[in-house]
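Colleagues,

For the teaching module next term, I've prepared a clean inverse folding example: a structure given as tokens, and then the sequence designed for it. I'd like students to try predicting residues themselves before seeing the answer, so please don't circulate the second half yet.
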């Protein structure tokens, strides 16, 4: 289901050349922020604690490869309170991410960067989603224009995070907690730009030009 209001607008990524000039910096365009668990891989109520427990969702590797091939810059934005809870050492999380990136690369995709929040919910940090902190860190580190970026997630927190950070579009996927989140968002009156069945469907929406960004120019 795609938001009809956005369908009518032309899909244009990135900043206008004049604005790029003003900033005197290289700006990453076509950025896609992705949640990890429930979007790229199966989630678990017991958390994903090591590479042995990490299983890609059907089609997700191919979707990441297709988005990469089309020039999209893929950045992971993931809450990993398992670190703050003392359940998993940081080295194990980083090993999992190294292996995940390798598997994505072998399938033809590229994860450009990964931002994770290690804190517990009670630590009231600024990075744990739904707070926009991780996306703001990413936009600052890589000179990304948030309005030219898309956030994809399976949780209400991902959609709220993407919107708070000023992303041009948000896509809720129905994998992971997606079905529950779809109801939650409707109850809260929050509408993602689009709802996709899974990452393959989301990628198809983006690659076919069926997504339009709020910040895009109508022509
Ligand atoms: Mg998730």
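(Answer key — instructors only)
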């Amino acid at each position: 289901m795609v938001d009809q209001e956005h369908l009518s607008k032309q899909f244009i990524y990135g900043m206008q050349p004049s604005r790029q000039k003003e900033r005197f910096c290289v700006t990453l365009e076509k950025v896609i922020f992705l949640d990890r668990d429930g979007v790229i891989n199966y989630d678990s109520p017991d958390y994903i604690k090591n590479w042995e427990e990490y299983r890609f969702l059907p089609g997700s590797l191919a979707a990441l490869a297709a988005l990469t091939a089309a020039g999209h810059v893929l950045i992971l934005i993931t809450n990993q309170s398992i670190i703050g809870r003392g359940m998993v050492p940081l080295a194990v999380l980083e090993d999992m991410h190294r292996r995940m990136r390798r598997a994505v690369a072998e399938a033809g995709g590229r994860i450009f960067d990964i931002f994770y929040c290690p804190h517990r919910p009670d630590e009231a940090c600024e990075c744990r989603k739904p707070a926009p902190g991780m996306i703001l860190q990413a936009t600052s580190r890589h000179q990304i224009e948030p309005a030219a970026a898309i956030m994809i997630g399976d949780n209400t927190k991902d959609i709220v995070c993407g919107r708070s950070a000023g992303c041009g579009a948000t896509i809720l996927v129905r994998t992971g907690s997606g079905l529950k989140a779809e109801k939650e968002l409707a109850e809260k009156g929050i509408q993602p730009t689009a709802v996709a069945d899974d990452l393959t469907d989301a990628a198809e929406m983006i690659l076919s030009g069926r997504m339009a960004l709020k910040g895009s120019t109508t022509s």
